[in-house]
Amino acid sequence: MMKALLCVILAFLFAVLGEGMATPNTATGSCEQINIPLCKDLPYTHTLMPNLLGHRTQEDAGLEVHQFYPLVKIQCSQAMKPFICSVYAPECESGRARAPCKRTCMAAKQGCHPLMTKFGSEWPEQLNCDKFSEETCKESETIQNITISDIPHLLQDIADHDKALSPTTWRKLFFYSDKDGSGNLNNKEYQEMKSFLTILRQHFTESWLPGRHHHRSFRRILEDRGVNLSYKTTEDLWIIYKIGKDDYDEFVVILTKLEILKGRFDAKVLSGLPCDCKIAGFTFDEFILNAAL
User: Domain 158-291 carries which CATH code?
Assistant: First the structure.
């Protein structure tokens, strides 16, 4: 029953969107307090009318934006609400409407388009992400409760290398970055993940400069990350994973695994040992979980 109702709502929604949405424009005017219910708890509190789609009042915009409520409610993407509100109730900055962020649009589409397709609908052309720009994105713009489906598009600006990461690698990165185990990333966790990937990309590129001994470079990278292993262990890891200059995905996987294992080891280090050494204690369940990485 619920699926049937959702199907009807989505079909109606995109029929209306296909007929009624205007072409995006850059509006100017006076800032006004947001009164559209769906958009009242955003990081910003004032919008501008006419909006980017030509709605002259918040009442007009609210009638249309409310039809997105089912997609926001089922949380197909945490980016959906910020994106839709940036279209219908754009942030007012010094008498001008800030255009939607392309990165946020793509994250919303990545999460919700598969559901729409399942019910026979397509992403509306009026919301084509190519119509928006990265220039309007704010580094401080936060999307709390970021899901795994949001991550590849939110981080697409890191580098071309990162676009080739496999779904499995993205899941491992997400698992590593989800420090509180909530199943979503808050903004701090997301920014740390972004920084981690940026550093790995730099290390990988430098590892393949002419004249470098690659497994030695790999050991230095591990030491920089606080993963201090013997020369033989590091060389064995390099041989096992057979990392080549085109194996960026594998490189990210092994570094992420080692970071996770280091964190788990440090959390279980035993104290009061009669030797100058570090030994950690694990239950059998914990050992199996670690071995499964």
Answer: 1.10.238.10
